[in-house]
Amino acid sequence: MKKYNVAVVGATGMVGQTLVQVLEERNFPVGQLKLLASARSANTQVEVGGRTYTVEEACPEAFEGVDVAFFSAGGSVSQELAPEAARRGTVVIDNSSAFRMDEGIPLVVPEVNPEQLAHHQGIIANPNCSTIQLVVALQPLHKAAGLKRVVVSSYQAVSGAGKEAVDELLAQTRAVLDGEEALPRERFPYQIAFNILPHIDVFLENGYTKEEMKIIQESRKILGLPDLKITSTTVRVPVIYGHSEAVSIEFERPLTPQEAREVLSGAPGIVVMDDPAELLYPLPQALAGRDEVFVGRIRADHSVPYGINMWVVADNIRKGAATNTVQIAETLIARGQL
After folding, report:
1. pLDDT tens digit string along 104-113?
2. Could you tell me the pTM of the whole model?
3. Which of 1, 9, 78, 251 could form a disulfide with 145 if both were Cys (CB 3.0 to 4.6 A apart)?
4. What residue ranges do the domains of the chain occupy?
């Protein structure tokens, strides 16, 4: 089997560390592995597969001889270094929002639109975590009955805001349980422990947050439905791993809950967990560390002629970021494009 020289940019961050783990778990055909990060993190020692690697500073020259680079170091780093890597013949799979809505750059979820990989010019965008799990569930239903309108409310884990956010939740939880009045608060504008915040990312002039508009715009692009009627509300909840979404769909054609279960059960990357009598439905705590998208609470929406409500859960650091990124590279290999 051919092996590929791989670079992970942002290797010391939460997603970067998981990326390295996923590459190992999935036996990705790595030849040489480069772990890259900021100058501050350079020279850090990281153990991968029993071997110790020294993290190098991410710079244009670091991509010489690299076949594929997984970027997870933020938009500014991607904007600066991804074009430099692509110019050196490296295929960049970028996990930031830097290129997602660029017309000439594919935005890809392998279960949904792998054909878009044929059009890449060296840079491929990985979608937002909450978008990925949503479109994996929407695509097969769209093929079955045609999407007319989608309403999604997301309940997003703090890990989506990085390691510092996880640390803040844990510190606040300890402080509350210890009866302390002053809670550590740096990452979120309000207490997140024992609370929920209807606010992810910055507010825009239209009243939506940037996170909500990401879901709307990215879903349209990935599904190839630029005029899809879709609206979103995003909420931060005191969960460490796993985004949950309440999704209401109006279809063009009839689709019963049982038909929806059958469609979803046969779709790639989806596990249906839906047995109310046994209290079986997806829970983020139970599904952390998994790579599938889990769907439950599938039921008719009687407020519209052809409607379905459902509950969608996925690990935001794995399928929502690291795993989807690696799957893109695997798909490129399978298609003979890497």
Report:
1. 999 999 999 9
2. 0.96
3. 251
4. 4-127+321-334, 131-316
